[in-house]
Amino acid sequence: MTAQRVVVAGTGLAGFTVAQTLRSGGFAGEIVMVGQEPHRPYDRPPLSKGFLVGELTMADLAYETDESRLDVTWRLGVAAVGLDVANRTLLLGDGSTVGGDELVIATGGRPRPFPGALTLGSVADAELLRPALAPGADVVVLGSGFIGLEVAATATQLGAEVTVVCEEDSPLDRVFGAEASASIRGIHERAGVRFVPGVQALEIVPDGDRKAVVLSDGRRLSSSVVIAGVGSAPATSWLATSDLELSPFGAIICDERGVAAPGIRATGDCASWSGAPCRHWTLAKERAARVAHDILEPGSGQESGDLEYVWSDQHGVRLQFAGTLHEGAVPTVESGGIDTGDVFLVYRTADGTEVAAFGMNQLRPMMRWRKTHRRRSAGVAA
Amino acid sequence: MLRICSLSELVEDEGVRFDTVTPPIAVFLTSAGEVYAIDDTCTHQDASLAEGWVEDCRVECPLHASTFSLLTGDVDSPPARRGVRAHRIEVVGDDVYVQLSALAPNLPPGVEY
After folding, report:
1. Chain B residues in contact with A320 (beta carbon < 8 A)
2. Could you report the per-residue pLDDT of A231-255, keeping only the tens digit for each?
3. Domain span(s) for CATH 3.30.390.30 in chain A
């Protein structure tokens, strides 16, 4: 290990995990963390759930505690705006520069905007959104991915009337299949959420002091507030003029270990490794730890072998999905029921191979399924 | 010490939750035959660690990715940021006794017992 100074751009899960893993691995040099937001690293998944509803405070979200402060140099509230690849140096928004022996880019993703709609990607977004979700509000949510559905559930909990516009015939049915989708739709509809499926939102236009969402079938939905959960994009616009190569979707193109250029690595939602984007919380954490291990000792970062795993909380139900949905994989109800909010599904290919599982309030079976179906080649302890 | 359960109630490489004490604890039997007890509730969010995955003397929370040491209760990485309490166990014959930690528990926000 020769690096004396590691500079990390981004203070989300990926950036935090890089710094934490470097320190726990014995790195004694300087770590500089550059963050656009004024906050120290915090947990983002609760932004659409416990934080939005007001049960969790900013202090609850912080990754550090008084006893576990990261030993790093903070540059907070200032964005990275440019990169000198050859000298591994960031240009910051205040005109200063910061360079290191190793540079890690972990600037994450940003919600895709929809003109006229609010989005949710940060504490500031959530604080802006919360007052608009009071009783009496009628809320239109664009998109039925996890963020859209979580916001719909939270808004309902806060007393708002909620309508979800989804392009699919039923929420998430192209992602998880009809059975899981019906289970998810059920918990929402029983809580009073209305779905408008199979249509696209074209634009948002003024409607007196309200807003109207114009749909592809000609209908207009009047609402007091519109929230877009229509995916996210890598936060890499600041690299457009750098020498780093970006994918058509804006992700930093890296090799299979996250190396984008000599001494420059990228990880988390802003990076694509060997053509594979990051997409999920658990993978962002795993890749960030690998990057840190590779900085500590080249080649030492290892894949965990864990399967893709995502979770969500909606209307008090824990949703979990693990694995990869191969073409033609068919789900079977292993326990619980589609209509009772407690289903456990296992997806099998035609030859009977189990490739994925979906559970609602099925924590123990899901945990067991995830671990017993890990990739065995990945050096997992027996 | 308090008798918490019998050895035969435990399942190898799994946790069992006991709410006869407050807050509830999770008791684990490892494949090496050791018995450990820690607080059952993850410090990040309300989840039962007894439903987690036991490996290398650690348990992974069944909801997210944090793991806790069965020996000390310490946590490895986010989203949990505080460890759970570890309790002293003694096995006499088929009886499992626990000496609860005197420390204050680290319960997640919004969870009270």
Report:
1. 63
2. 999 999 999 999 999 999 999 999 9
3. 309-378
CB-based contact, A60 to chain B, within 8 Å: yes
Tell me which chain A residues have a C-beta less than 8 angstroms from the C-beta of B52.
Answer: 367
Dihedral sign from CA coordinates of A131, A133, A138, A144: positive
- Encoded amino acid at B54, one letter: V
Determine the Cα–Cα distance for residues A229 and A120; give it in Å rounded to an integer.
8
Whole-angstrom distance, CA of residue A79 vs CA of residue A92: 6
CATH number assigned to the domain covering A123-228:
3.50.50.60
- Cα A285 from Cα B77, distance rounded (Å): 9
The CATH class, in words, for A309-378 is alpha beta
- CB contacts of A64 in chain B (<8 Å) are 81
Q: Is residue B26 less than 8 Å (CB to CB) from chain A? A: no
Taken in order of first residue, the domains within chain B and their CATH numbers are 2-99 (2.102.10.10)
Total-model pTM: 0.94
State the span(s) of chain A assigned CATH 3.50.50.60: 5-111+232-296, 123-228
Query: Which of A364, A366, A373 to probe by mutation at the B interface, max B CB count within 10 Å?
Result: A364
